């Protein structure tokens, strides 16, 4: 699942939980899934931020300096 799909899934989880029709067990399961997805998204955002920071570094010829993670 890519980043955008994870965000859509998180939005669905929030809507379901706000609806108030889930059982306590279903809410807990949804909450756990939401936490997992949030952590994965945060990791991807952090990696993207690091890559952007690296791309902003230029060498003596004005070319971006990049490194693999």
Short description:
This protein has helices at residues 3-19, 24-55.
The whole-number mean of residue pLDDT values reads 89
Distance N terminus to C terminus?
Answer: 20 Å
Q: Tell me about the biggest sheet?
A: none
Quickly give the structural class: mainly alpha
Radius of gyration: 18 Å
Order of helices and strands: HH
What count of helical segments does DSSP give?
2
What does it look like?
There is one protein chain. This protein is mainly alpha-helical. 71% of the residues lie in helices and 0% in strands. It has helices spanning 3-19, 24-55. The chain is rod-shaped, with a radius of gyration of 18 Å. The mean pLDDT is 89.
Could you outline the blueprint of secondary structure elements for this entry?
Elements: H1 3-19, H2 24-55
Helix pairs in contact: 1-2
Keywords for this structure?
single chain, 69 residues, mainly alpha, 0% strand
């Amino acid at each position: 699942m890519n980043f955008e799909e994870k965000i859509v899934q998180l939005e669905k989880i929030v809507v379901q939980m706000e609806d108030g029709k889930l059982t306590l067990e279903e809410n807990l399961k949804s909450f756990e899934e939401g936490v997992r997805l949030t952590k994965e998204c945060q990791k991807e955002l952090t990696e993207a931020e690091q890559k952007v920071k690296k791309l902003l570094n230029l060498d003596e010829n004005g070319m971006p300096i990049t490194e693999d993670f």
